[in-house]
């Protein structure tokens, strides 16, 4: 004998889950701002007030850069999903911001995979997870390419002492592990949630190259926007550094921060620690760096998450396609 919950009870619990996600996101934002071990909130506000650099013109420009960053991400999601299901710009906007809110306090934004998949019916969800992976990989590729270039220039210019023997050992071990994992996957019929590695490989290889190339282009545009936004904030704080020199540090920072596993809400802390070290080498004070990191987080993650909370609260499970 099976017992099913009444419809109204299901709706109540579903609403409670959505409310819990939003409250959890807001609580973590509050904790990060008020209990940041690296940057006291009052010191942060005091530094901003003392600089008096945020005119209406500057704030509008910063918000415009935030809008561009979001716009490129939303378009990228729409174009990546396009081969399996046509979605409107409004749908892409809702899914991108809603999933950002839902994944805010999950390790390495892992919650985004499930959050985006739940916007689709069961027959699409496995492919949506893989498409989201492709989107993240495209952004990581751009971060890695520009990060490696910037880091090389940074090392050469500032003569950073690196133990190349240990670095070579680490890279060799990493390549061997990746090689063994790849070989093991080839020889075993491994499945992930009922989706075999063979099917995953087939899906990725058969994914339209045009859409993937467009995703890489949009990832590049996003990268250019938020790295320039970082530089612009440094300029507002009166930091005397050229654009090219700043880019070597910023690209290096994003590379190093992206390869350190973290809970997304503490991404600002990790970027802060890496940035303090890197910018310290070029003689930029700690408070300016941490304030820039915090403002970047507020503009590009907190603000979209606040908007996304509306979509989380109003989310309804998708109905089967006709």
UniProtKB/TrEMBL annotation:
The chain crosses the membrane at residues 12-30, 56-75, 133-156, 162-183, 213-234, 254-280, 287-313. Keywords: Cell membrane, Membrane, Transmembrane, Transmembrane helix. It is found in: Cell membrane. The keyword Aminoacyl-tRNA synthetase does not apply. It holds the Pfam family LPG_synthase_TM. One of its GO terms (cellular component) is plasma membrane. It is a multi-pass membrane protein. InterPro entries: L-PG_synthase/AglD. This is Lysylphosphatidylglycerol synthase-like protein.
